Amino acid sequence: MEILYFLVPFSVVLVFFILGGIWWAIHSGQFEDIEQEGERILKD
After folding, report:
1. pLDDT tens, 1-44?
2. Dihedral (C-alpha) 33, 28, 15, 6: value to the nearest 10 degrees?
3. What SS3 class is residue 32?
4. Alpha helices in 1-44 (DSSP H)
């Protein structure tokens, strides 16, 4: 039972890290031009 005192806050912190990573990826331009990467492999 006392493991829950560790796992619940740990999972909340993990969710915040995941959401922060998604926010960073969106705002740093990771998803700006998805089609270009698919076409780039065909041009090489």
Report:
1. 899 999 999 999 999 999 999 999 999 988 777 777 778 778 76
2. 140
3. coil
4. 4-27, 34-43
